[in-house]
Amino acid sequence: MTDLEHYRILFSKCLAMRNFSTEDVMEKVQVPNSEYVSQIVGTKGCKIMKIISETNTKITTPKRHEESVFCVQGSPENVQCAVSEIEKEVDRIQSQQTIHKRSNKPMIEYRHPVRYRHIGLTIGKGGSTIQTIKRIANVEVDSPSILGTPEFKIVGDYESVLKAISYIEQNIAQKTASGLSSPFNIDLIREALTSVKPY
Fold first, then answer.
1. Which tens digit of pLDDT belongs to each residue from 60-79?
2. Which segments constitute the K Homology domain (predicted)?
3. How far is CA 109 from CA 81, 100, 141, 162, 177, in A?
């Protein structure tokens, strides 16, 4: 059994408990290739299940060797939300690939923890602060979800990731009276980054 077939079984069990009305709509979302499908689905289907749960939609994932198209079913509003989340994932993957091509250096992925109360501060109004971090450090940053672990996933080469972490911590220190998100030691961060395997 392939990974995607395993995911489809998981989805079917989850979606069997959901009720859909005759007013539901269906929309297809084309993604570039099967590698995108795999990344959007996530390990053991964790990412696509999260989208399904948060948007209350039914999402059919393409099997291996099928056209790379997700079929989304639900109320018009929920379908648009799910489509938007899938498109965001596509943009994220493309951004990571662009960074990798520009860098020509080994890429690492590092999850930097912050306090819950500093998540919004780090993201900034309308995402302004996180966009600045991406631009200045030349990295891709995934922000934590509301109910998820308070960690920012940062992807880039070693120096770029270190630069992004430093910017996050400096921003928190400048804008709060309570200090940094955690005891911040640049040497410990460097040591942690060197232990991350590139891909």
1. 999 888 899 999 999 999 99
2. 23-91, 106-173
3. 27, 12, 10, 11, 30
